[in-house]
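Discussion board: Methods & Data

I've been asked by a reviewer to show the raw model output for two of the constructs in my manuscript, not just the figures. I'm not sure how much to include, so I'm pasting the format here to get opinions. Each protein appears as its amino acid sequence followed by a line of discrete structure tokens. Is this the kind of thing reviewers expect to see in a supplement, or should I convert it first? Here is construct A:
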Amino acid sequence: MTWCIEYSKSGRAKCRNCGQKIENGVVRCGKEEFSPMYGPVTGWNHPECLTWRSLSPQSMIGWRSIRPEDQTAILNLVSGGAGRQSGGPTRWVPLPRPGQPWVPPPLSSAAMAGAGSSSSQESQHDGVMAEPNWATVEEERQDTDVLYGKVNVLVVGCRYYGGLLHEGEYAELVREPRNQYDRNAIRVDNMMAQQVGHIKKEQAAVLAPMIDDASPLKPWIEVEVNEGGTNMFQVSCTASIYGPVEYQEQVLRYVMASGVLRLKGNQSIPGSPGMGSGTGVTGTNSSNLSVVRSVKISSAEASQKSLDKLYDELKTDLSQLDTASVMKALQGKLLSPLFPHQQQGVAWMLSREASLSLPPFWSQVTEAGTTVYYNQVTKSSQSTAPAPVKGGLVCDDMGLGKTLQTLCCAAADQFTQAPGGGGGGGTLFCGPN
């Protein structure tokens, strides 16, 4: 097996470890192998995703073609240094918290450029951030936190647990400081609180101190499963790190100094060089790191098409409604004749009241040989069927007989009849005063 190193030529290849595409122009390392079907092939990896214990970058084919600054970054990575971004602390520095002497953070270039929260800017005096109001800081953060950056993380050990993750699903990180195998262990649960696995050990060692920090100003992490990143052994995810703008440079420098986490997309630490001209790490200042919501839809048009597709699947085939039974149930109770669309409306309302079908956006599927129920919106599944959703909204235009349809629904509904045919049954109508 021969190892080689080069700059990515197309951006189509995926990293063998994290499962994400290697951007065009980024330094990549590959192992040449022989496939019985395809012949000689190369499996590519991000340098940050490799385990360098038995590898030497200088011995890789193509090492001399790598630019000196990128060679230095890779050598730092191999030796356990800063790797892709240099100059950061290798240990987490706890953020301020109530009851301790206030130590203001050094203002980041983003805060100085005005990217911070208005409350933060108002609290700054002579270039120094004043101590926040600890009683309200967590509530204020909901509107002022910014996205520091996104990194790839791996969920491993998935075959040992019963929980599953799906593409686009959000996962919850749960610290396990008393884990007998790793004090930095971070358990990963799906939306049904079922354990899926653990964050890869080397990555957990970086994230755990951030999660354990007792400060109300500590960063928070949102994890989403990557497209095409799931298999029975591991799950590739994107971890988005958020927090107060004043601490973004400190947090990013710590994260990247580890050498095991890689910033995704057009993001960098202010003033730090990137590895490779095409990485998207352009050396821009941190004011380019703004609040970005984790939405996979890339445009309004695509979003509308996605919503239309979901709602199209909810449409009822009106020709299948049993209007004959409805008219039979209304015999002797109805003085005004019903138009065809009104008969369909009454039949639809009755079918909704008696519905035993799955709620909207749910479907029954088979996963690992087991029947489960999958939600298209949350991208999660569960073993028990969700309770049926009864009722609905009649939204006909004005003058098409919504009132008449509602009265007919009450008259034809078997549940409005009192037991034994006596009095006492009825329907409650609620209307505006």
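Construct B, same format:
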Amino acid sequence: INDMFRSPGEHVSYLKSDRFARDLLRLNRKVKSVLEDEPRCVFLQSPAYVFGDIHGNLEDLHFFSDNVWNLGMSLTAGNFVFLGDYVDRGMSCLEVVAYLLAMKLSLPQKVFLLRGNHETRDVNGWEEHYGERSFIHQCRDRFGDDLGFRVWEATNSTFDRMPLAAVIDQDIFCVHGGIPRPISDPSKEGGRIRDILNVTKVAGINPPYEHEDEDHQQVASDCIWSDPASEDQEARSVDRRTGYGDSLRGGGAICFGHRAVTDFLAQQGFSYIMRAHEAHAEGVAVSKGARVFTVFSTSKDHNQGSDAMAGCILVDFEKMQVINRSPAYRNQYVHRRDSVSLAMLSEQEIAERVKLGLITSDQAPASAGGDDEEYEEEEWDEFDEDDDETGDIMRDADVDSLDTDDDDGYVLD
């Protein structure tokens, strides 16, 4: 699997083979036992790299490999925190999952894989909505209906055991969607973190297993589905007492406003929230008084345009560094359909590589599944680094050093 990740173009036959499927089944069995030993909220120290949605985009994942852990994760100082949504939308879901699970198995105390809303059967099994870009379709298309379904179910069984949150330096709360509503007295020791820790070890969430109680299913669902409230939601629909309101996503999802963020950070003694779940063309965005960071680590498949960047954040004690993939960056193995490097390939070989996501069209495809997920809030200003690949901000920086057009978005000045 590591060889495949380094040079997928040389492993096309393996990626289509039953051997790859069997490797995935074995890998899932081993990683499940590792995840079962982890709490629902993991605690770690910086330095730590934090990544958002990847969505089957092997090209952007390879960018981070080339530039963040080019010597390998084991030889790179710090931890790696992935905030979920590894599958759907992109064409290389199986490759992304295989690589990240292999890294988790190899470096269980260094690599942390949180759960996103796409790590649920209701979402990654929704073939009618995502079509060929759905995880279940790619499993069945690659391995056949029977073996493909076994790989899909085994992987979802692993997803059921993934932690829902992480805390860096007892100061930064990391989650896919957002902060959960309290189900017990938040003033008691542990507060919302205790609620997350008490979520059952094996949780289906969407759909839930019979053993999941309603309160803790709500906690888990809030962690993977919620969003920061927009300025309009703050004014119109957010409850001023609790700071929560109904999300534009529908389906029982919630949004959280300034009051919810303030209460949560004060109760837990944290300073910041890092989450994913929403597409942003600059890769990283800030909101809620520069206390909520949204990280998005894929530049494709979300209607963000050809100049969209993939981002991550390095947390290093009192410093945060934003690392973005510039649109000008080109890797060595994902090619456009009109690339001269494909001139020696047959039409069948090209078609095989298109299915694996190794060949893309000249123009970015429309976002699969429409605009009901990972939408971009217009009120949110994003980091503008003039196409520099990195930018720094201090964790304890005065908010006055940030320029803002409204009370809900900040840009580095």
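Answer (T.O., handling editor elsewhere):
This is acceptable in a supplement if you add a one-line summary per construct. For B, something like: Confidence is low (pLDDT under 50) at residues 362-413.
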